[in-house]
Amino acid sequence: MPCQIIIGLEVHAQLLTSSKMFCGCSTHYASAPPNTHVCPICLGMPGTLPVINEKAIEYTTMTALALNCTIPEYTRFDRKNYSYPDLMKGYQISQRDSPIGKGGWLAIISNGTEKIIRITEVHLEEDVAKLWHRGDCSLIDVNRSGVPLMEVVSEPDMSSPEEARDYLVKLRNILRYLRVCTGNMEEGSFRCDANISIRPPGNGAPLPRVEVKNMNSFRAVYQALEYESRRQNEAFAQGGKLVQETRGWIEEEGRTVSQRIKEHLDDYRYFPEPDLPPLVLDRAWIEGIRANLPELPEARRDRFMTQYGLSLYDASLLTGSRGMADYFENCMKLIDHGKAKTVSNWLLGDFSRLLNTTDTEVESARITPGHLREMLSLVENGTISGPAAKAVFDEMFHSGKNASEIVTEKKLGQISDADEIREVVKQVMASNSDAVADYGSGKQQALTFIIGQVMKATRGRANPGVVKEIILQELGGK
Questions:
Q1: CA 397/CA 402 separation, integer angstroms
Q2: Could you tell me where the DSSP H helices lie in 193-319?
Q3: Which of 21, 113, 312, 416 could disulfide-link 463, Cβ–Cβ 3.0 to 4.6 Å?
């Protein structure tokens, strides 16, 4: 019998504030030259004093409330002491005993089953500088140092790499709905450290846990945890000794490697930050934030099912991002609710495909809900056919032109004239005598083939109903 897998996640999320956690330096450093968004506070110069960023406190409180945490009225910052090149002061201002949020939970659906993952705490700290390794030396860029960094710590309630991945996806979606973090793992604004251990069968105590770092995608988290669970199980089966340590994930090699023996809390020598006063969070202020929380993904999904009659599958996909959910609702402000399924099909089909292939965010798309409404009206009144609508949609997405303009320019209007269609039908039947013969011998699929050839010959413009009627007329005379 294999050992039980025990996983807990520590997620760090950079907050979307305009300035850093304890100084006024800009957080918009992504494209800036190294060490240009810095000041004496960022650099840890002697005699400097930090000042708390109120917006960061607000964003962390929002997140804690969204994760069903209890918000204490009293909180404070602590010094976490450790020596590492990317830590300018030799300590990090963080929170240990009095975090902003405690005792929350997050529900995930993994392999079709709902599971509650408990949230230990949501706390706030400052990010560290970034090391750039170049051959035998390392360079330090201090631009990132001091950016507000929120940490969401889960209980070890996950029992598979799949559950860990589903938890991360759900958490990132919530942060994006709140608009407190970009959630971009590749850029490092959403980072995850995983604690994983195994519990042998019949033994109540888990073996020493391992912290896994350096995972910069959902795929990497899944693969690293899958590898590490397999490594630990094999070591246990072979009688090897597992130690509490920190291991790094090497993407190119598909394995983890030991980095250092894991520190204990006492090693950090925490004590209350002497340069910052304790924070008292006014209860009315907290309730004001709670009242202004946006509708979160699960609630919006359920409302889409009730209000628009969508399936669980469609509603879940549409609410997978706040941008897509907002776009859908803006469409439904202009379009009859009875067409919600049609709108959903366009957004989850052609629209999503074009967004992905062009690497475009929903909010930046040139096609507007008004464009979609006009195009659907043209389909409904018979001006364009279904295949022509796809061509129109594609052009609207790339050019931003309205549907009527595109139909006129590209001559995509539907052909309903019977005489014009009959001429095309005759040409197609003359060129496909085998299909005509097959239909005569009782093969009904030959009719579908002939209809397809007529639609192809007219570039999808012919009225499908008229096409079928005329083909049947012509075949009847054969």
A1: 10
A2: 218-237, 283-291, 297-308, 312-318
A3: 416
What values do phi and psi take at 470, rounded to 5?
Answer: -70, -40
Q: Is residue 29 part of a domain?
A: yes
Q: Both 150 and 260 in a single domain?
A: yes
In this predicted structure, which of 153-157, 162-166, 295-299, 435-439 has the lowest mean pLDDT?
Answer: 435-439
Say yes or no: 392 and 427 in one domain.
no
Report CA-CA distances (Å) from 411 to 401, 403, 460.
15, 12, 11
Q: What's the CATH number where 468 sits?
A: 1.10.10.410
- The position carrying tokens 């002939």 is 450
- Integer-rounded Cα Rg, in Å, for the chain is 30
Q: Is the C-alpha dihedral spanning 304, 305, 311, 317 positive or negative? A: positive
Query: Does residue 103 sit within a domain?
Result: yes
Q: Which helix (H) or strand (E) holds 163?
A: helix 161-178
Q: Which helix (H) or strand (E) covers residue 63, if one does?
A: helix 54-66
Query: What is the β-pairing status of strands 91-94 and 130-134?
Result: unpaired
- Domain holding 323, by residue range, is 297-410
Record the tokens describing residue 400, joined without a space.
Answer: 């931003």
The pLDDT tens digits for 274-302 are 999 999 999 999 999 999 999 999 999 99
Cα separation, 151 vs 172, whole angstroms: 12
Instruction: Name the residue among 328, 412, 332 with its Cα closest to residue 403.
Output: 412
Q: Vertex 118, ends 323 and 100: CA angle to 5°?
A: 75
- For 285-304, b/e burial (b = at least 16 CB within 10 A) is ebeebeeeeeebbeebbebb
pTM comes to 0.85
Whether residues 368 and 281 fall in one domain = no
Q: Which has the closest alpha carbon to 65: 354, 288, 262, 310?
A: 288
Q: Based on the number of CB atoms within 10 Å of its own CB, is 323 exposed (0-12), middle (13-18) or buried (19 or more)?
A: middle
What are the tens digits of pLDDT across the range 228-280?
999 999 999 898 889 999 999 999 999 999 988 766 667 789 999 999 999 99
* Interval 52-61 mean pLDDT: 98
